[in-house]
Amino acid sequence: MSGIWLIARRDFSAFVNTWWGCVILSLTLLIDGLLFQVKGMSATPRYSAEVLSDFFLLTGGVVLIAGVFTTMRLFAEERQTGTMVLLESSPLSETQAVLGKYLSGLMFLTVLLVLTTYMPAMIFVNGKVSPEQIAVGYFGTFLMGAAGIAIGTWASAISRNQLLSLVIAAVITVFFVVSWMLSRVLDPPFKDLIAYVAFFDKQLAPFEEGRINTEGVVFFVSVSFAFLLLATRSLVARRWE
Q1: Interhelix angle for 94-114 vs 48-71, to 10°?
Q2: What is the pLDDT of residues 205-237, one digit of tens each?
Q3: Phi/psi at 91 (5° precision)
C-alpha cells in the first residue's frame, strides 16, 4: 500500500505543481462556471431540482474532458521522458503502478469537484434543494469521472506518446457518452446493449435527480475495474516484449 501511495503522491504533486496541471484545472473550472451561468442560472424561472440536475450534467461532461487530458501523461509521459525504465525496474508490481497512477487521477478529480461546490450552493440564494440531493449528485459524478480516469489510464498504458493516449481515451469516452444516440439507429439486442452503456442518458441520470442508482454504481465500478485490469495486463505484456 505504501508503494501505491508513493506513486500517487509523486504523480499528483508533479501534476499540480506544473503549468499544465494549473491550466487544466483553471480552464475546467472556468468552462464549468460559464456553462452553469448560461444554462443553469438563466433568467427564466425554473425549479431548483432542474437547475441542480443541469449542474451535474454539465460538470460531468467537463470532468470527463479534464480526465482525458489529465491521464494522458500517466504512463505515456514516462515513456517519452525515458523514466519508464525506472518504474519497470522498481520492486513495485504492475498492479501497484497502475493503482498508484489511478489514485493520483482520483485525487485530481476530488480536488476539481470540491472546487465546484460553490455552484450548487448558489441555488440556495433563490431556491431550495436538500444537501442529500447534492451529495448523491456528486457521488454519481465522481463514479463517472473515476470510470473516465480508468479509461485514460489504460490508454496511457498502451501508448508510446501523450498525443496517442489522448486520442484513444477521447474516442472511447465519446463512445460511452454518445452511445444513447447510436442505440436509436440499431435493432435489438444491440439497441438495448448500447443504450445500457450510455454514461449520461442511462447511468448518471438517476444521480442527477438525487437518487442512488445501484445499477449505475455497479456499472461505473465495473468499467473502472475492467480498464484498470486491461492497463495492468498491458504493462505486463510490454515488460516481456
Answers
A1: 140
A2: 888 888 888 888 999 999 999 999 999 898 887
A3: -75, 0
Residue 141 in contact with residue 199, Cβ under 8 Å? no
pLDDT confidence of residue 187: 63
Sign (positive/negative) of CA torsion 132, 135, 139, 144? positive
Place of cell 435493432: 187
Domain count, the chain: 1
**Cis before residue 206, ω within 30 degrees of 0?**
no
| Residue type (1 letter), 237 | A
Question: What residues make up the domain containing 78?
Answer: 2-239
- CA 137 to centroid of chain Cα atoms: 14
User: Residue 241: what residue type?
Assistant: E
Asked if 180 and 132 count as a contact pair (C-beta separation under 8 A), the reply is no
Q: Which three cell numbers stand for residue 55?
A: 449542474
CA–CA distance, 135 with 141 (Å, rounded to integer):
10
Cα gap 229→123, rounded to integer Å: 40
89 CB neighbour count, 10 Å cutoff: 8
pLDDT, one tens digit per residue, over 78-107 is: 777 777 766 667 777 888 888 989 999 999
Instruction: Dump the DSSP string for 111-143.
Output: HHHHTTTHHHHTHHHH----HHHHHHHHHHHHH
Q: CA-to-CA distance for 128 and 194, rounded, in angstroms? A: 36
**What DSSP character marks residue 37?**
I
